[in-house]
Records
---
Amino acid sequence: MSVAFRRESDEEHLEPTFEIPLPPGPNWVTQRGLRLTREKVEALEAAETADMTEDEAKKLKRELRYWRTRLATAELRPVPDGEAVAFGTRVAYRLNGQAKTIYIVGDDEADPNDGRISFSSPLARVMMDAEAGEQLDFGGTENSVEILSISPIEEA
């Protein structure tokens, strides 16, 4: 029989399921980030799978593997002194004339809508080791970022 008339199984056309990609580099976390990661693992472990479809259960297990890996590789960073921009600092800055404040945190804790950016983001990388009063080049523009103040993130 010609291959053109062979019935292919439905399985052959399914998209492969890959693991959730891990961000490159170290898995630095703040105290808050470590707590949030633990809570995520606990919530996923406590999820009731009895009423889930097979696909939903697979998705849950995949997400649980991701968060367990992130918890196992988490590196709790010491609280910085606030003298210079570093992981775990709150930074007030001016960009293009607008004053803003960000918190420099780990990849999994980052939430730009909440002002939390990853230490691996372009803006955070430009700011690292800068001190209050310094002006930095960013986005191809000279002296576009001015560091106004720096303090350690203080969260319970």
---
Amino acid sequence: MPNLVDSPEQIPDFSCLQLNQLKDCDRAAHDWYRFVLSFPPHLVQDYLERFGITAEQRVLDPFCGTGTTVVDAKMLGIASVGVEANPMAHFAGSVKLDWSPNPDELMQQAERIAERSLKEIEREKEWRSLPEESVKIILKNSISPLPLHKALILKEQILAEPSGYQRHLLLAFARAIVTDISNLRFGPEVGVSRKLKPDAPVVEAWLARVMAMAADLRYLQTLPDASATIHHADSRQLLQVLEPNSIDAVITSPPYPNEKDYTRTTRLESVLLGFLNNKAELRALKQGSMLRSNTRNVYKADLDDQWVSKHAGIQQIAQAIEDRRIELGKTSGFEKLYHRAAKHYFGGMAKHLADLRQSLRPNAQLAYVVGDQKSYLQVMIYTGNLLAEIAEGLGYEVVRIDLFRTRLATALKEQIREEVVVLRWSGKMPAIAYPFSDIPL
């Protein structure tokens, strides 16, 4: 495997210092709903160009989140497919791929809904609220009582409108909730602002989001059409949703091995749109199709760690984490899972990369955006290097590792690398198909 390369000719030339932010020219569709820490469209564009991907080829994002890669590929006229386990993110990405609504009709329907909603808000004197079992799974004070009351009335009116555009109207609702109506704030983690909003212009904020969506649709409908879809599925079980020998390029950013619970980022809107209703459904989501990237979704019956049971480097890191825990006297249930979470994460990525091989065409090119981590008791995890080692053992060629950016880890007060692991698949299965595993496969 080649050493880490930082030479200028191998690093994407991004002039913006805040590399994860959307450029104004990239806001159409992408800005309908987006994770705050999503990787940016200009990174996708850069690697599509580097890989020489054309309209005759097909791009995959197996951890597609809210659809950055597939949306950008569609804009460029390139066929694409995504896989996403989080139902809210899957919904958002799927809607962002649908450019069929008539913008004028969309606005007319939105204005009718807004008028009805404002009248109902004025009429109702008793405030609506969420069921208690739903309140238990959202962050306390995520949204103040009066804005919540207004939002529930607005959602009811959206669902009551006989419309083929309901999904777009609901996505605009989710976007307005998170950005304009709730008390949430976003940084490395989602939290609640100290200054709560006792009230918010709920209907007006939603209508503004629909208006922006309609303006985008007028532009998007001028672009050439390209096939694009997102499967609601597990990235570790790709053979269930992808055809053999069908993918020419992969551009993706999987979760990193840390304590970030990715379901928290979308929790409020997931509850308001009905994707999650109680603790049992939340547990089922975490235990089912999500990569094990944090201790909140590691369970006793999990077997992903067996995929790297023979990988010396990962076993050493897991042991170092456990030794540090014992040395520091950390005894909480989550702290005791730190070493297991690290092994399950890389095991899940190994399973993903193993499955993926059958869907790749010969000479397929891949870019994985990952970040080094010290979340587990400050034991350094060189995610990119370890992922490259796993890929090489599974028969991939490690072309290089590009530096995407460095970011300040606020808790550690040090710069941490985010990198792009660039791979190539020759089409030839190695002599030992699963070199790091004890599982009889």
---
Amino acid sequence: MITQSTDLTDAIRDRFAHVDVCPFQGPRIFFENAGGALTLKSVVETSATYAAIPDNQGRDNPASAALGKAIAQAKADMALFFNAPTGRFFVGESGTELTFRLIRTAVMGSEAGGSVIGSSVEHPASRSAAQHWAQMAGKPYISVAHDDATGQVTPAAYAAAITPDVRVATILHTSPVTGIANDVAGIATAIRATAPDAFIFVDGIQHASHGRIDIASYDIDGYVVSPYKVFSRHGYGVAWASDRLTALPIETLKDGPAGNWEMGTRDTGAYATFSDVVRYFDWLGSTVSDETDPRARIEAAGAAIHAHEKALTDAILHGIDNLPGIADLPGVTILGGVDNPDREGLVCFALDHVPAAEIVEKLNAQGIRTHIRRADHYSGNILAPLGMEAAVRVSLCHYNTLEEVRSLLAAMKEISG
């Protein structure tokens, strides 16, 4: 477990840029990982390397061949990281853009008639895309209600709402508002029990940094992540599409290669920086386990990340040493409940006597970076049913430490009065 090894924690933190110092603010604790995780130093170096290369893919010269090799290696690394032995990986503008594209392809390319199903817990990227293209295709949209108390949607809830004519289904892996994960495999099983031929899309953007992605076990057709939330950089997203989704009439160049999702010349640096992410998980897995198989090392890394982050969120909620936890503060509401076993590296809360915006401002003044979630188009689906106008999101990753948690709790003790 990472929390038990100071040497390992130091080695992990040394691999990330700006781990404890903001180039604009100065020293700070970074608890805003759900808005964008820290960036690996290797990603920064790789980005600079490929940004300087003028050549394109598909040419008859050594530089072009090297670019093609880097992209091929990255796709193999993606297949390893996501555990997806079949299907295709490709990059796009962002996770949101790829979400719209995969859902559009599934809705518009599926059999005429039928309906589209999703849940009220989803990020607006997948929910907006599904509702928009369902309307464009004349397919009714079915909304599965999530449980306000747990912040989750269950397989049973999908099973109760789904009909045999569902053509496309969307699932949120983990909520960026509550940090609570959903049972993707269980929900997919419930969908296929009634609508076996439905195309199933999963938003994995918030989940990815916490590891433990296993596409082969989900029985789905699309999965999207935003690499800047999993230790890479802004400017691209990564998508996986099943072979059956790729077989639909996808948007591609006429008379071009069949099944080609890529639109124009790709940024080789984007692909290469995701290889950096996969190599990091492999390194971490080799450090926390004796595994020799690359996939086993990635799984070991995911298990260690989960254990470490649970220790940190438990400390945030219940306190450490003589410091009270967030759950012990007067007038507090914890989104998703206090002891939710499916929490992943995030605690979102509000106090009834101190506005969320004031809490975020006061924490920032003490060098503790958090974020406010408002009942707007991003988070209103979660906050409005709870009667909340805003909440404070404390989101962490495995490079955060118990010492940083102590600083947060000490500040919150003072702020809460």
